[in-house]
Design goal:
Blueprint lengths: L3 H12 L7 H13 L5 H15 L21 H15 L4 H8 L5 H4 L16 H22 L6 H30 L3 H10 L7 H18 L6 E4 H4 L1 H9 L5 H17 L12 H5 L10 E5 L1 E3 L2 E2 L3 H13 L5 E6 L5 H12 L4 E5 H10 L4 H4 L3 E3 L3 E3 L9 E5 L2 H7 L4 E3 L4 E3 L8 H6 L19 H33 L14 H4 L12 E7 L1 H17 L5 H9 L6 H9 L8 H24 L5 E6 L5 H6 L29 H8 L13 E4 L6 H17 L4 E6 L2 H9 L8 E3 L4 E3 L5 H9 L4
Parallel strand pairs: 1-2, 2-5, 5-6, 9-12, 12-13, 14-15
Antiparallel strand pairs: 3-4, 6-15, 7-8, 10-11, 16-17
């Protein structure tokens, strides 16, 4: 049974207006930015943060044990117009080059529109949560001040400004927490007041204090500074000593500890706004004024502590139970599976997944080798984690997400046409490699246009081996070209970044010690996540060429080329034939072998990029599309799998929509053939009808099915247990399905809050 306050909070959240917003943040931010306009960047940042935290409304909700909320209002027309004008002032009619100077890179126009450039942050990272709770904010401030006083950086004013801004930021957070202590005291909540007063400067000594301190840091970072999509790291590990000490000394019972965990989990959902960030066309998202309106936070549990030592403990069980009973979209719990995992815990995980809890599973047995291959040291690899959407990281030792969505179908297009691309929109051939990866592509990290390849030495393929060689050649050409352009960007960005600070720089290892933000090199690791996209479309297209041209000799390569160029005009017979050929996801070896070909080709080029790189960043391969599979298909001509021009490519690691006809076991068998020991992240969306896994027998089948997949080398699983009829009914009667939570790609969403396009995509992938 959930605590009374939590049940009330959840009910209020669903009833909250879509227009409610933390408007104070915008008002106080703009006042402070103008007030301190003449200060050096980092000093100005600290003073702006302090100004907001000294003045924002302190909210304590009746009945809560863990405090930390913001005051929300529904803006009137004048307030909304003012806020919209600010967004225009910051980002409209600003060149991509100017955006690079201001913020280095960004994820999408919708993602940056509510962000003042001064308070810009990239989010998508993990703080050093252990240092926060074990050492306290006072220690952090004293450390930064000590470096200033030591004179070590006396000859570098940028570094002195950086540290000065950091001290201001730490002290600002202490100010807010003390204000909470005062407010709790006025309300007669002496226990909460004492906890807040203690952790305002000092380290935590109990589970309650640790969770409360973490939450205050999250509230400030996410709702005020805009730094969201946190990874909380291996929370069941670093909170365990607090829990065990509390139990041993009689401060808490296990159920009381469970109640605190439930309340902390709920806080992560409570601060979210309605809406789905990937549904940019919906009015809820368009009108939202928040900087982190639906940013999920990730908690890592279980997994190996070192070779052969399991990390499953009592808190692991409690956190799965909490996620199961809450059924919320946030936080996002990532369970790390390994050989020999505790069977009872594994059954609890699968039971939680079949109830549509926001739980996904990653495989230590593939992830650890992959991370080691792509540059993670042995001493760090067992601490790996994830943030949205299914992107790997080494907690506290690296900064925010940087990525490129690599369209793995483009090398097929270029291999088929000798390095040239047929632009469907223009109705003509394109060959201009200099136009590849323009500034916008690099800043948002998405292959969204038309790409040209390497035409040198092209010969018509005489065998499938020749065609595969052409695919690999074009893939290599594209990615090395991207790397060359990005290496130039890195140098510019490090220069632009000098003397700047962001909220995340306060709590990463290396930034304070080096008096340098993570962009300029303050942390140990800097990576670009190379998101390999459209795997199944590439695989099916290669398998089709092999079958149609080289095995059956039913069609010539040129015949297929001409049909694809015209989007099968007057060749519906050929399209039907290609569409009927075996597809990835049905456990057909002659098709599935190309998943190994494509994945290894991709990983080989990424490895070569790391050998050739000269800048800070290393490159790490994943297989993922998020929801960009639609956009990445828009500029592509028809493909040899029977897909028409402009249609979406396959999503994440899944078969192409509707192409798997042989059941979930065959699907998992196909996917497990991917060489995941070289892949460092990405989701597999599995859809099951509720009737297939009901009862104890259903749970036993699901547990065994997922165990076998992991043992065979599968990397990740996320599950939607929902029928097509339920989703269709939810579209018609949203008020009756408000808490229907679904896995989208690397995050969860309430189905009725998703945009119509996203809803239809999910319905089309769902079994009857």
């Amino acid at each position: 049974m959930l605590p009374e306050y939590v049940e009330k909070s959840i009910d209020q959240w669903f009833k909250k207006s879509d227009e409610a917003t933390f408007f104070e943040r915008i008002e106080l931010q703009e006042e402070a930015v103008k007030k301190y306009y003449d200060k050096p960047y980092a000093v100005r940042y600290g003073k702006v943060l302090n100004y907001i935290l000294e003045r924002m409304t302190v909210v304590i909700n009746e009945g809560e044990k863990i405090a930390g909320s913001v005051k929300e209002i529904i803006p009137d027309d004048e307030q909304r117009e003012w806020a919209e004008n600010l967004s225009c002032e910051w980002w409209d009619d600003v060149s991509e080059e100017e955006k690079q100077r201001r913020i280095m890179f960004y994820y999408s126009p919708g993602w940056i529109k509510r962000r003042n450039p001064l308070l810009f942050t990239f989010g998508h990272l993990s703080f050093d949560w252990e240092a926060i709770i074990n050492k306290g904010l006072g220690w952090h401030a004293e450390r930064a001040q000590g470096l200033i006083d030591s004179g070590e950086f006396a000859d570098d004013q940028d570094k002195i400004d950086f540290l000065t801004g950091a001290v201001e930021c730490y002290k600002a957070q202490t100010v807010l927490i003390n204000r909470y202590a005062d407010e709790a005291g006025k309300a007669g909540n002496d226990a909460l007041s004492a906890v807040c007063r203690k952790i305002a400067c000092e380290p935590a000594e109990t589970l309650y204090e640790a969770l409360q301190l973490i939450w205050f840091v999250v509230l400030i970072s996410q709702k005020v500074a805009g730094c969201g999509v946190f990874c909380f790291d291996r929370m069941d590990q670093y909170l365990l000593p607090y829990f065990e000490k509390d139990i041993a000394e009689g401060r808490l019972t296990e159920e009381e500890a469970f109640g605190l965990i439930v309340e902390f989990f709920n806080k992560n959902n409570e601060i979210l706004d309605h809406g789905d960030h990937m549904s940019q066309e919906s009015d809820v998202v368009k009108n939202n004024l928040e900087v982190t309106y639906d940013d999920p936070n990730y908690i890592i549990i279980a997994g190996l502590l070192s070779k052969g030592v399991s990390g499953v403990n009592k808190l692991s069980h409690m956190m799965i139970r909490a996620q199961h009973e809450l059924g919320l979209r946030n936080p996002f719990v990532v369970v790390r599976w390994h050989e020999g995992i505790d069977p009872e815990f594994w059954s609890e995980v699968c039971d939680s997944m079949r109830s549509n809890s926001t739980v996904v599973v990653y495989n230590d047995e593939t992830m650890i080798p992959a991370l080691l291959e792509f540059g993670i040291d042995e001493e760090d690899v067992y601490g790996y984690g994830f943030y949205g959407c299914n992107d790997p990281l080494i907690p506290k030792k690296e900064g925010g997400l940087r990525q490129l969505w690599v369209n793995l179908v483009w090398p097929f297009e270029l291999a088929l046409n000798g390095g040239s691309a047929f632009c469907v929109g223009a109705g003509d051939w394109v060959h201009d490699p200099s136009a590849n990866f323009d500034m916008r592509d690099r800043l948002i990290g998405l292959m969204s246009g038309v790409y040209s390849g390497d035409t040198e030495g092209y010969k018509e393929p005489e065998s499938m081996e020749d065609f595969i060689a052409g695919y690999k050649k074009q893939l290599r050409f594209l990615l090395l070209q991207y790397m060359e352009k990005m290496e130039e960007d890195y140098l510019k960005e490090q220069e632009y970044s000098r003397g700047r600070i962001r909220i995340e720089d306060l709590f990463l290892q290396g930034t304070i010690e080096n008096a340098t933000n993570w962009i300029a090199g303050g942390t140990k690791y800097h990576k670009i996540t190379m998101q390999g996209s459209g795997l199944a479309t590439a695989v099916d297209s290669l398998a089709a060429i092999d079958q149609a041209v080289f095995k059956e000799k039913k069609y010539s390569l040129d015949e297929i080329r001409q049909a694809l160029r015209t989007d099968f005009a007057d060749r519906e017979d050929l399209r039907i034939y290609l569409d009927s050929l075996p597809k990835f996801g049905n456990d057909v070896e002659e098709v599935d072998k190309y998943a190994t070909v494509v994945t290894n080709a991709f990983c080989d080029v990424v490895a070569e990029m790391n050998e050739k790189r000269t800048g800070l960043y290393t490159y790490m391969p994943t297989l993922s599309t998020d929801r960009d599979f639609t956009g990445m298909g828009a500029c592509l001509a028809a493909t040899a799998d029977g897909r028409r021009a402009g249609e979406q490519i396959s999503e994440n690691q899944s078969p192409y929509m509707g192409a798997d006809h042989s059941g979930v076991t065959a699907l998992l068998n196909s996917v497990s053939k991917v060489p995941f020991h070289r892949i460092t992240g990405g989701p597999l969306n599995v859809m099951l009808h509720p009737s297939t896994i009901e009862g104890d027998d259903g749970l036993a089948k699901l547990t065994a099915l997922f165990s076998v997949f992991m043992k065979r080398g599968g990397m990740q699983l996320q599950l939607n247990v929902v029928g097509r009829e339920e989703l269709l009914d939810a579209q018609k009667k949203p008020e009756q399905h408000k808490n229907l939570c679904v896995r989208v790609t690397g995050y969860s969403a309430y189905f009725v809050q998703m945009g119509k396009i996203a809803q239809e995509e999910l319905i089309n992938r769902t079994v009857n």
